[in-house]
Amino acid sequence: MSITSPDGQTTIEPDGGPGPSFFRKLTTATDWRTGLVIPALAVFTALVIGGIIIMLTGYSLSETLAAYRALLEGSVGSLRAISQTLTEATPLIFTGLAVALAFRAGLFNIGGEGQLLMGGMLAVLAGFTFTGLPLVIHLPLAIVCGAIGGAIWGFIPGFLKARTGAHEVIVTIMLNYVAYRLVDYLLKSALFQREGRNDPISKTIEESAKLPKLLAWVDPAMRVHLGLFLAIGAAIFIWWLLFRTNTGFEFRAVGANPSAARYAGMSVTKVYILVMTIAGALAGLAGTGQVLGLLDRASPGFSAGLGFDGIAVALLGRSNPAGVVAAAVLFGGLNAGGQYMQANANVGIDLISVIQALIIIFVAAPALISAIYRVKSTTGSTQISKGWGA
Amino acid sequence: MSATFEKPPVESYERGEKRTKGLNRSQIRRARISGIVMLLLAAAVAVLFVPNAEGVATFGISTVDDAIQLDALVVPVQATLWAIVLILGFMGASQFVKGFQRRATLILGISFGLFTIAMMVWATAGAEFSLISMLVATVSRCTPIALGALSGVLCERSGVVNIGIEGMLLGGAFSGVVIGSLVGGWVGLLAATLTGGILALLLAVLSVNFRVDQIIIGVVINILVLGLTSFLTAQVLVKNPEWNDAPIFPSIQIPLLSDIPVIGPMFFNQTIIVYGMYVLVASVTYLLFRTRWGLRTRSVGENPRAADSLGVSVAKVRYWAVVSGGLVGGFAGAWFTLGTVGRFDEGMTAGTGFIGLAAMIFGAWNPVGALGAALIFGFAESLEQKFALLDIPIPTEFLAMAPYLVTIVVVAGLVGRARPPAADGQPYTKE
């Protein structure tokens, strides 16, 4: 039930709570059963229930199976499908990390939407304002601007939480709404709006600010872009930060027990501000990837709920950077396959959300899967969040 | 999980020992900050509104079918704005210098209210504005927010976090419209309520029996309901439009009470769902704070181990609280379809459940507090709609974001750390 600093010198005991220690499970080898069999059975069971729902709406068994074949083809059936899966997964890795990192410090970041929007807007601004720069300067500049945009929107709730105790859940929800309105305003302002247009749409970014498409040389329709490597790099960085640095140890210590962390001489204030700023930057990069890699411009609602999806990804990935990447790829595959399924089998893409929700339930409650398939599960349910935080 | 390491809470300041001498440094800083906020508001009125204000603003305060017709309020714009600047400036300056101590929260609330009035007077200058219809809309729009918050209060007072309010609202809205179309409005209302209860049962089983992380279940409920209702809308309701055409509950005038000017049409000429909200807020307040059931629920939310050792069944108490919270959430969902438009659209709750969540925290996990917060949000929503109709020179987006910014300022500056139930979010294992 304790967590230990990277140098093995300091140990912090979390403040109680039943169940096996989440932190210990990450440091010891995971049982292969819970590691692979349970998630696989969770996905299978969710698909079976999804199939039953499809059939209840008047499809025959063969039509349902055809829909699922389309789902499979659309997610991993071809290089193009895999490209689409990874394209969909890229922003989810970022927003998942933004939520997961905050969870680690005992904070609940519902503000991914707002942070993503502000990051995307600043990246677009940098993308079309600077002209004549070479790609090696312009692109990194736009990416950094995007990260800063998100970081500002993350800093505000972190600062208010640390200094005044304002609840981060309220502040992040409110900042989402502020960001939606601010984007609506900015897209109609002279600064952003495309010349000759009356609808809210931004100018198009320069060629030198676009994230290069990775597979365009195979097929120009393949949209997977450099943002994928940025996302994986961010996941590795967050893993290193959390588990290999003293700062990350402080994050986890504050998350486990803020009082103990304070008595151990750590600054809870600093941790709250830093964690929310980094989380905001991560979500900002999600928006940056969308505008620089896919959209080339900003339009209202380009966040498309990705900030909220990040909560699901973080929970499914058990707030572990590697788990977040895996969960994001799974969700990305389901989204990509769902688009294909909607187009080719005429089964609505909204079913994918139902399947995703069911997968999360079964992964979070292995006891359900154990009961259905009579597999022995070694783990109980996991506590990932900390309720309303400290 | 309580923030024992933090600085002393605001209460000691609000009770105020004697004069400024009795305040410690952080309390003085707090008083200074809210003083500055008020002075900024005064400056904003003077700079933004006063220069381009002239003529009179007309506010209608009676509806056509009121028993007692009141003349419209005619307000001289320039004079009113200057008066508000003076009052705000005076209050801000005194707050900055000596602090209003325990009345500080009230004074800041009044300041934001005055600022809102200034904004409305300025926006209406030279035009006519139906204040009464906006107030009626405020009460109506606050209903799903207040009920959503109430659903959260019930669950969380027993120690179960309910992030799934949004899903419960959406589920109630959907089943309400389908059953309402097929059978009738009252059965639809019942179906909506039960849908919320079933979703809450999922929350209860998984959180109490399987001890799954409560926030995971809430998020799952939101995704599941959004996906399922959107899927069914696209696959079933589009092909069968007669399933998506429910009767709307009419407004019911309460005799005598609805004849009171302003208050009458505002509170006593509403649909059955709004009256249901009054009854639920009152009865939940009574149940939570005046009955044995409420005491047990709160004790389980604060310290389940102690409650258990006194013979209270933690699981049973949590089941009751969560399921009744779900019933309230489902009932609230009916507002979106049976209470207003009579048809369902994908994702039509549009984040109201999250606003309800914020109202619950804003209202410090208290039903009446949550209702107050919900009224503020409801006012903001209807003001935004009305302002969209008036032709004003500053972008409506900024007016629309004002209530959210005000909420942040209030939560950061004055409410401070509202304390959740101590065992909120923690599963309980009997030893």
Largest sheet: spatial strand order of chain B: 2-1-3
Which structural class should the secondary elements of chain B be placed in? Answer: mainly alpha
Oligomer: heterodimer
For the biggest sheet of chain A, the summary is: 2 strands, antiparallel
Question: What integer value in Å does the Rg of chain B equal?
Answer: 23 Å
Give structural notes:
- The complex is a heterodimer of chains A (390) and B (431).
- Chain A is mainly α.
- Chain A is 67% helix and 1% strand.
- Chain A has helices spanning 22-27, 32-56, 61-76, 79-104, 112-129, 135-164, 168-187, 227-244, 246-256, 258-263, 268-295, 306-316, 321-345, 350-364, 366-373; strands at residues 3-4, 11-12.
- In chain A, a hairpin with a 6-residue loop joins strand 1 (3-4) and strand 2 (11-12).
- The two termini of chain A are 18 Å apart.
- Chain B has 2 domains: 12-131, no CATH class; 139-411, ABC transporter involved in vitamin B12 uptake, BtuC, CATH 1.10.3470.
- Residues 1-20 of chain B have low confidence and may be disordered.
- The longest helix of chain B has 28 residues, at 314-341.
- Chain B has a 3-stranded mixed β-sheet. A two-stranded antiparallel ribbon of chain B has the order 4-5.
- Chain B contains 16 helices and 5 strands.
- The interface between A and B is large, with 66 and 62 residues.
